[in-house]
Amino acid sequence: MTRSGVAPESLAAVRRLAESLLPGDVWDFIEGGADGETALAANRAALDRVRLLPRVLAGLSEVTTAGTLLGSAAGMPVAVAPMAYQRLAHPDGESAVARAARDAGVPFVAAMLASATIEEMAELGGAPWLQLYWLRDRGLLAELVARAERAGYRGLFVTVDVPVLGNRLRDVRNRFTLPADVGPVNLSGGPVAAHDRVDGDSAVAVHTSAMFAPDAGWQDLAWLRERTALPLAVKGVLDPRDARHAVDRGADAVVVSNHGGRQFDGAAASVDALPAVVEAVGDRAEVLLDGGVRSGTDVLRALALGASGALLGRPVLWGLATGGESGVARVLEIVRAELARGLTLAGCADPAAAAALDVLGVGHAR
Predict the structure, then answer these.
(1) pLDDT at res. 41
(2) 364 confidence band (pLDDT: 50, 70, 90)
(3) What's this model's pTM, rounded to 2 decimal places?
(4) Residue 259 falls in the annotated catalytic set
(5) How confident is the model at residue 317 (pLDDT cuts 50, 70, 90)?
(6) How far apart are CA 290 and CA 270, in angstroms?
(7) Could you read off the pLDDT of 13-28 as tens digits, one per residue?
(8) Residue-wise pLDDT tens digits, 132-145
(9) CATH architecture type of domain 11-355
(10) Which of 38, 49, 106, 296 could form a disulfide with 361 if both were Cys (CB 3.0 to 4.6 A apart)?
């Protein structure tokens, strides 16, 4: 149930309600992309071009959305994407999202730039994954890995497409800053605060530039692989050559992503890059899709193109804004119901069967 007392019937309805409830600068922080936001728009347009050829007379008496994702049982092939500062959308923030994901049986990827501690999110999220960025302070990065291991995290998501923060013009125009009660609590002691207004810039961008390492290379992924036995997912890959490099250096999963259109505005849409990455990786690692996913049908599209699942990002924050934990639960239930209906209409008994569907509208599709 949402703050309005009405359960939205679609993610589009959740989005409209969230926009009406959130302050304008917070809405822009959540929804905005880089520069002209062409990559942001491309994600949605590319997914809409993917058309499936459903099978008929499949003789299905029962359909399930359950399966495995990221090495564990999942209620559906969807994981909650890592997203920073979730308390901007609701006071319960990451705690509400972690609980809703746990109850829905989907993996929760805890953001490094969370407004809750690594330990709090692990306790509530049922052993989630932890996202990492490349920090200038490798000692702090190693400390985060050790904390994740002690807290029982299932694995690490390494985001590799942020050598510098994308030029997010909405945040620049708003001179966006974090409120005093929201901040990167797992990165205490940084050289710049994200709460101090910066003329002509976003305080979040200035903080990120001070903390993140722009010169990370493949040797750093090898360094991380040597430091931990936890499974590694490399997020932010579009070129199949990079996907092969990641797997060669120990990645257990590759996430095809243009960072939701928030980084390089000239980047390809994630789903357009997906088939070539799937082909390059083969059966050596899982491949997930991130970027523009707005329905269970989009998840089905990803599965048909060879992905093992998809990440759900902004819609989770919409749900959080509209009703806290119950709002996120509603978003996940909408996606699960749409996926179940889509599998039935496409003649697929389960998510694994979707890989046999023929696809039109994207490069390398069958």
Answers:
(1) 98
(2) very low
(3) 0.94
(4) yes
(5) very high
(6) 7
(7) 999 999 999 999 999 9
(8) 999 999 999 999 99
(9) Alpha-Beta Barrel (3.20)
(10) 49
Q: What is the mean pLDDT of residues 272-279?
A: 98
CB 208 within 8 A of CB 259: no
CA distances from 4 to 18, 164, 339 (A): 11, 39, 26
What is the signed CA dihedral for 170, 176, 179, 183, rounded to 10 degrees? 90
Annotated binding site for glyoxylate: 133, 168, 259, 262
- Assess contact for 32 and 169: CB atoms under 8 A: yes
195, 207, 245, 259: the active-site residue = 259
The answer to whether the beta carbons of residues 203 and 178 sit under 8 Å apart is: yes
| Assigned token pair, 360 | 């039109």
Rounded Cα–Cα distance for residues 130 and 146 (Å): 11
Q: What is the dihedral of CA 65, 110, 278, 11, to 10 degrees?
A: 50
Known binding-site positions for FMN: 82-84, 131, 159, 235, 257, 290-294, 313-314
Q: Which residues contact 300 (CB under 8 A, 6 or more apart)?
A: 52, 339, 342, 343, 346, 348, 354
Distances in whole angstroms, Cα of residue 107 to Cα of each of 57, 100, 122, 153, 157: 33, 10, 11, 11, 12
Measured distance CA(149)–CA(118) in Å, rounded: 10
